[in-house]
């Protein structure tokens, strides 16, 4: 007797092998999914509950690559968010949210202007408060149904300058709270500095973007405590950076040229 059949992409999610159908489809196209030992690429392939499904290669520790970026920043800057309540601005699939939780945060407010992108496992995690269709340019604690200040925040936004999202956080984060910002030069530099594929290819543009961003952050009252290249590039290979800000303390003497050189070292070699 033939058992029930399931779409391959749905079955991968149901079994907990991947976090979303979108991720399953990406892995299928990349040839990373095997059914009974044979590579399959079609998301609509029907499989049964007796078929052996395998994800080939190392699995990400987070629901998306973004978690690796935040993890690198927390490690480099010595931030230990155990017990923290934080807001993740631009949560999207939830890579940063997942990293906050796995690093010890007690609660994460996942904020995004979009809808339906957050990974299912995070959407159903009681420690995650989902706030979708919310423009973080005017974010308030009231929108999070919260009165107490937060312990930290992260920003990973696209198609908008990160500085525009820093302002509202000044009234939401405790004095000693940590703010980690993924600075994306492709959205900070003008279109004249982008290749036809939207990539910043000039280290001098990176330096100028970082200089403007850090100055703007200080003008808003933040202390700049750290800056590093992201260990993972953005879309189309764009180099990105991670900044560590706080509303308490004194800005460090950040050697922007050295950070840019570190980011480009792989290119120059």
From TrEMBL:
One Pfam entry name: FtsJ
Domain called RNA-binding S4: residue spans: 6-65
Superkingdom: Bacteria
Keywords, ordered alphabetically: Methyltransferase, RNA-binding, Transferase
SMART domains: S4
The keyword RNA-binding is assigned to this record: yes
GO molecular function, one term: RNA binding
Keyword Transferase: yes
GO biological process, one term: methylation
InterPro entries per record: Hemolysin_A/TlyA (IPR004538), RNA_MeTrfase_FtsJ_dom (IPR002877), S4_RNA-bd (IPR002942), S4_RNA-bd_sf (IPR036986), SAM-dependent_MTases_sf (IPR029063), TlyA (IPR047048)
Family: Belongs to the TlyA family.
Name of this protein: TlyA family rRNA (Cytidine-2'-O)-methyltransferase
Record organism: Sulfobacillus benefaciens
């Amino acid at each position: 007797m033939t058992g029930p059949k399931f779409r391959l992409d749905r079955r991968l999610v149901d079994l907990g092998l991947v976090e979303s159908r979108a991720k399953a489809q990406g892995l299928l196209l990349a040839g990373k999914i095997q059914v009974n030992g044979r590579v399959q690429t079609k998301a609509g392939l029907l499989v049964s509950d007796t078929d052996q499904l395998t994800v080939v290669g190392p699995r990400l520790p987070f629901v998306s690559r973004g978690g690796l970026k935040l993890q690198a920043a927390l490690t480099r800057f010595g931030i230990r968010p155990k017990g923290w309540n934080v807001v993740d601005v631009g949560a999207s699939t939830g890579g940063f949210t997942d990293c906050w939780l796995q690093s010890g945060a007690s609660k994460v407010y996942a904020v995004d202007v979009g809808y339906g992108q957050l990974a299912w496992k995070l959407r159903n995690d009681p420690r995650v408060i989902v706030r979708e269709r919310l423009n973080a340019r005017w974010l308030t604690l009231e929108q999070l149904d919260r009165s107490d200040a937060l312990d930290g925040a992260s920003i990973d936004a696209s198609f908008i300058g990160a500085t525009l999202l820093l302002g509202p956080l000044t009234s939401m984060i405790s004095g000693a709270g940590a703010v980690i910002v993924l600075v994306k030069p492709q959205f900070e530099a003008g279109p004249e500095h982008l290749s036809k594929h939207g990539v910043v290819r000039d280290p001098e543009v990176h330096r100028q973007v970082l200089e403007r961003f850090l100055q703007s952050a200080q003008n808003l009252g933040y202390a700049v405590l750290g800056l590093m290249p992201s260990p993972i590039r953005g879309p189309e290979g764009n180099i990105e950076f991670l900044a560590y800000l706080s509303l308490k303390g004194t800005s460090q003497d950040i050697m922007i040229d050295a950070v840019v050189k570190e980011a480009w070292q792989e290119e120059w070699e």
